């Protein structure tokens, strides 16, 4: 384990503290030494000089002035207490002796000379000492100057290197780590950070590297898994019998499978990433596929030397509530188409074949009721009436089936011409009048005077209204009303048939115009479930629209509109 960052910081600051402390102590030491040198000179030697001078002064006044002896004695005592130099004691002692002799023998002038000589010697000793000590103090000052300068310079150098290096200890690894994090954010998981430090930054770098390693591993394993999954899904898509084309949200081609390639006559590799509407300029099928409407229409496509039928299905890919593109599925319905065609042909043939014998049965039954053929008893009359009614019903069914097969084979023949709405409605009302009377139902017609003519096939339009009315009568209670209305708005003429019968459950309304659809639970044996489907085809073939509004238990309103004649 290396030195921790915290320790480094503490050491750095501690070192600076030590530098300041050392320098302070050293300076104090030298100042102290200098001042004690000066003190020593002052105390030890200067005072001795003062005493000597005083003694010399007192000597001048001897023997006349007796107080001079006291002054001399006092100074001599001071001098005796202030012996500091080698040899000073001996000289002071001989001074003492000489002074005693002088006091004992004041007339002897040689004693004066002796005393003066001793005082001068003390003086000299102390003067020399002063000079010597001064020289020492000078040397101390010099060495203090030198040492303080050396130490100051060294410390300054150390502190400077410290200041220069220390921020790098923190700034450098921080910069490296920031750089590494930036790389990771850019998904460059191969990034590693190498730090020689073994402190917290070193640990951080290690943690970073292991994180990057984990991310790298995760990314790679994920990538491999995703690539595998992608391959698998691509294979599945490619092997499907349906054509599949994927577009992104802007309409660029993402993928298309083998079937789609064949149908479009395009190679995936050539058109990948291209803008689909651009391709549609040169490719009819692509144009049809990109049209939003008409999804229900069958597409007849000639490819691979044969005709196939496809159903277009568009799936909008939604991701988190945002449209992320769409997948166009071309479902191969050739088989269903062929079966459906066979069924339609069969129904058409059978209905057609049944029509003639049914008509003749009806004719014969009617003839039987004629008195000229022979008189029938009541029972026989009832039987022929029932034969006639059943033949009617069967004829109705065959005509519906024929109509349907016409619709399914796309063979609706329209005779569009201006027609009066009133005439169309009248024809329909007359056709169902008898049925209505049998249930005692009143048909109320409400037509404005100024209704314009419609552009319509009169027969087919009144067939539609008859179908509406037949249903309305069938699902209305006895002695109720049925309203037939027409009005005119925005260059269109609207026709409606309203009954107050049982109504239709809301959930069945979207399917009411589907072929063979009957509301479940209505045990009505007379229906084929084709009437409304044929009505829709008839109205749409004439460029109109058909609709229904109904509430269960309250009744139903069926309506359509056609263009006004010009
Ligand atoms: P169908 O020939 O069997 O009557 P339609 O296509 O005309 O077939 O009608 C489909 C179904 O719609 C009917 O079976 C019936 O259940 C329901 N339906 C049609 N008209 C009405 C109506 N006026 N009131 C209630 N139900 C109706």
Low-confidence stretches: none
Mean pLDDT: 88
Judged by helices, strands and strand pairing, the structural class is alpha+beta
Bound ligands, named by name, code or SMILES: adenosine-5'-diphosphate
Tally the helices. Answer: 14
What kind of sheet is the major sheet?
5 strands, antiparallel
Strand coverage percent: 15-25%
Gyration radius (Cα, Å) is 65 Å
Helix content range: 55-70%
Outline: rod-shaped
What's the short version?
By secondary structure, the protein is an alpha+beta fold. The protein has 14 helices and 12 strands.
Task: Note down, in words, how this protein is organized.
This protein has 566 residues and is of the alpha+beta class. Helix content is 60%, strand content 15%. The protein is built from 14 helices and twelve strands. It has helices at residues 5-61, 67-80, 88-104, 109-185, 200-239, 258-264, 268-271, 276-280, 284-290, 334-369, 378-408, 421-438, 458-474, 531-541; strands at residues 243-248, 253-256, 298-303, 306-319, 322-332, 417-419, 442-446, 454-456, 481-489, 492-499, 545-551, 555-563. β9 (481-489) and β10 form a beta hairpin. α3 (88-104) packs antiparallel against α4 and α10 packs antiparallel against α11. It is rod-shaped. The model has no long low-confidence stretch (mean pLDDT 88). It binds adenosine-5'-diphosphate (ADP). Adenosine-5'-diphosphate binds at residues 467, 471-472, 475, 499, 501-502, 504, 512, 517-519, 522, 527-533, 556.
């Amino acid at each position: 384990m290396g030195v921790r960052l915290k320790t480094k910081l503490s050491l750095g600051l501690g070192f600076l503290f030590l530098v300041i402390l050392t320098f302070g102590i050293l300076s104090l030491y030298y100042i102290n030494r200098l001042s004690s040198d000066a003190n020593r000179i002052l105390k030890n030697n200067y005072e001795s000089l003062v005493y000597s001078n005083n003694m010399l002064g007192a000597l001048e006044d001897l023997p006349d002035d007796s107080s001079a002896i006291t002054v001399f004695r006092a100074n001599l005592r001071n001098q005796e207490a202030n012996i500091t130099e080698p040899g000073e004691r001996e000289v002071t002692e001989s001074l003492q002796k000489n002074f005693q002799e002088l006091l004992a023998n004041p007339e002897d002038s040689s004693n004066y000379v002796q005393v003066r000589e001793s005082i001068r010697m003390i003086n000299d000793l102390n003067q020399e000492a002063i000079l010597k000590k001064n020289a020492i103090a000078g040397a101390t000052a010099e060495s203090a100057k030198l040492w303080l300068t050396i130490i100051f310079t060294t410390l300054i150098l150390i502190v400077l290197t410290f200041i220069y290096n220390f921020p790098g200890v923190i700034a450098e690894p921080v910069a490296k780590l920031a750089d590494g994090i930036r790389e990771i954010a850019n998904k460059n998981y191969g990034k590693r950070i190498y730090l020689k430090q073994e402190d917290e930054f070193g640990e951080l770098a290690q943690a970073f590297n292991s994180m990057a390693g984990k991310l790298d591993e995760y990314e790679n394993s994920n990538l491999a898994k995703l690539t595998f999954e992608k391959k698998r899904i691509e294979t599945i898509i490619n092997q499907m019998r349906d054509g599949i084309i994927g577009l992104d949200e802007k309409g660029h081609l993402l993928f298309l499978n083998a079937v789609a390639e064949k149908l479009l006559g395009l190679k995936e590799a050539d058109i990948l990433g291209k803008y689909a509407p651009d391709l549609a300029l040169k490719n009819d099928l692509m144009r049809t596929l990109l049209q939003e409407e008409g999804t229900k229409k069958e597409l007849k496509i000639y490819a691979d030397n044969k005709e196939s039928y496809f159903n277009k299905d568009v799936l909008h890919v939604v991701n988190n509530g945002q449209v992320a593109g769409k997948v166009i599925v071309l479902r191969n319905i050739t088989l269903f188409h062929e079966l459906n065609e066979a069924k339609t042909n069969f129904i058409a043939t059978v209905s057609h074949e049944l029509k003639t014998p049914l008509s003749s049965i009806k004719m014969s039954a009617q003839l039987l009721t004629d008195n000229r053929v022979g008189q029938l008893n009541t029972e026989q009359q009832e039987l022929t009436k029932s034969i006639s009614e059943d033949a009617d019903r069967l004829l109705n069914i065959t005509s519906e089936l024929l109509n349907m097969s016409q619709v399914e084979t796309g063979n609706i023949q329209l005779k569009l011409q201006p027609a009066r709405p009133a005439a169309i409605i009248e024809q329909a009302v007359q056709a169902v009048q008898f049925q209505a009377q049998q249930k005692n139902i009143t048909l109320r017609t409400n037509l404005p005077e100024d209704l314009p003519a419609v552009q319509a096939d009169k027969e087919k339009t009144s067939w539609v209204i008859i179908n509406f009315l037949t249903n309305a009568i069938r699902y209305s209670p006895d002695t109720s009303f049925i309203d037939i209305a027409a009005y005119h708005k925005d260059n269109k003429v609207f026709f409606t048939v309203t009954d107050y019968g049982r109504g239709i459950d809301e959930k069945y309304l979207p399917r009411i115009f589907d072929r063979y659809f009957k509301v479940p639970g209505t045990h009505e044996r007379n229906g084929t479930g084709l009437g409304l489907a044929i009505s829709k085809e008839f109205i749409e073939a004439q460029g109109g629209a058909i609709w229904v509004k109904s509430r269960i238990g309250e009744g139903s309103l069926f309506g359509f509109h056609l263009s006004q004649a010009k």
